[in-house]
Amino acid sequence: MSYEVGAFGGFVGATRRDDGKLVHVFWLSAMACDGCSVVALGANQPRIEELTLGEIPGLPQIVLHHPMLSEDAGAGFMQAYRAAADGTLNAPYILIMEGSIPDDQSLGGPGYYAAMGTGSDWPQSKGNVAAPDQPVKVSDWVWALAPGAEVCIAMGTCATWGGIPAAAGNITGSMGLTDYLGADYRSKRGLPVVNVPGCPPVGDNFTEVLKELLFYFEGGRGLPAFDELGRAVWQFGETVHRHCMKAGYYEEGVFAHEPGDNQCLVEIGCWGPVVQCNITERGAQDHTGGCMIAGGACIGCTMPGFPDKFSPFYKAPPGSAISGTTSRITGGAIRRLRRASMANANTEPLWDKAHEIPTAWGRAADVTNPVRKVNAFFYKKLQYSGSVNHAKRAKQQPLPLSRDILRQKGIDLEASVPVLQEHLITREEL
Ligand code: SF4
Ligand code: SF4
Q: What pTM does this model have?
């Protein structure tokens, strides 16, 4: 990449780096709620500030031009957009699209659904799109800036696949960036549109992709792996369900009745088994939060079919009738077997030998129960076959002589305060 210090400041942080390596990042917002801007600001791997301050070794400093964050406003703010569109910026740039793109090119007049700047900010080398005092459609800025960009990144589900503004019944004809630019679009670097879906996306997914692309442009790394729809494979290659913290409940056939319940949410409308999203392992922000973590079902917000193909929300997906019933049957049996193994794992070998569990916290399992003993016997047989039998070794271990020392010393414990009383519960009741 060849660099010259651009003449346009944008939001560049406190100082410019001495090496003059700058990449401009132009943020465009059309049919959007600004949620994508908010999550980008909350990202921390890396943080936007690290990029704008040029703090990441091996990466150029970015100059962020953002309608809400830049220090400049009006014509001063639009200068850099105009220079980029007519090829006089003299520095590489990246285009970020937030929100879907309305079909306002088809309105055939000055009407628009989303606009930025006025005709006086528009480069005349690109023809005349608006009178000097009239708004310029964002969709005009997109076609003017996309061909010269090192890469175009669609940020959020509206920009990637159209999202909510493109849902059935809309009057704007909204669409994603790929639909707008067409399948033949390639950036200056030969890249199709890179997509970071989500409503809103995980902020780190966006800054991470931006960072990886900058590394690639610098020659430090190869092109990051993107799937057939331009999503980062390492972020969107797996389903929500595979990494969901409630997947164990699903496997054991235990399902929630209401949002916020602890169990698997599939029967109250979770689409996680067929949705590609990494929020379950990454969290919403700072590795915390996220849909299932907060007790919410997945409504497929990262997917091209969102929202229409996932509505009505909070109704069990048709496919879950088969998989859920199967889990209920097989999972129910597995759960009971696991309970038995768990009861065994919850006892010390010493307690098995002494036939007593010395706890006052609950009604502990009865270690003398014959069914339990038979279970444990066969379980251990399988467990230790071909290996050292630690169950046998533990049996040969003598009981410690000072076990139950207070009773041995004759200390009267009847005077203890009986705080537990009605709180005594068995594990099964937990
Ligand atoms: S809550 Fe959803 S994603 Fe999680 S285990 Fe259940 S179905 Fe799968
Ligand atoms: S889990 Fe589902 S609803 Fe939540 S962010 Fe991912 S795709 Fe969207």
A: 0.89
